[in-house]
Design a protein that fits this description.
Blueprint lengths: L2 E3 L1 H9 L5 H5 L3 E3 L1 H9 L7 H6 L3 E3 L5 H10 L4 H13 L3 E3 L3 H9 L3 E3 L1 H10 L6 H10 L6 H10 L6
Parallel strand pairs: 1-4, 2-3, 4-5
Length: 165
């Protein structure tokens, strides 16, 4: 089954130097042409751009029916990257999508897609022993100007039996 990623988890994991750990969890990740353009072209020189452009395990997959994206865009406040991620996941019959924004996650869940965000990915890396210090990764996440509620991170650490931040 396919995994489809939006730009945010790719960029955040690149900022945390955890980008390559994605390949350990998912041998192949699909991204839409819109996400590729957002990260690798518009974001050239920024975290995630070079990683996405050179990762052989990330496949850029154009939408089969781009008119669906235009129709969805007219009805939604979500961005092109997020909408194209959800639409591509549906086209591919994806197992899950990698999304961070609350509204995006809500929409994907309504579309009956499993959702995993950056925090969940970091937890999975830790649980698979790819990431030794989850607390340090969470601290680094907070320092990267990423909007995340510290209480959420503390709850996640507690659920894993780890000390809070």
């Amino acid at each position: 089954m396919a995994i489809v990623a939006d730009s945010s988890p790719l960029i955040i994991l690149a900022k945390l130097s955890c980008f390559d750990l994605l390949n350990k969890l998912y041998p192949r990740i699909f991204i839409s042409a819109e996400v590729h353009h957002e990260v690798a072209v518009n974001g050239a020189g920024l975290p995630g751009a070079a990683e996405v452009a050179t990762a052989k395990w990330i496949e850029v997959k154009p939408l089969q029916n781009p008119s669906n994206l235009l129709a969805a865009q007219r009805k939604s406040t979500l961005g092109l990257g997020e909408l194209s991620t959800i639409l591509l996941a549906k086209e591919l019959g994806a197992r899950a999508v990698l999304l961070d924004d609350h509204q995006d996650r809500k929409r994907a869940t309504q579309e009956v897609l499993q959702v995993r965000g950056s925090v969940g990915l970091l937890e999975a890396f830790h649980q698979h022993s790819y990431l030794v210090d989850l607390r340090a990764a969470f601290y680094q996440l907070l320092s990267q100007s990423v909007y995340i509620d510290r209480r959420l991170l503390d709850r996640r650490l507690q659920s894993l039996g780890l000390p809070t931040l």
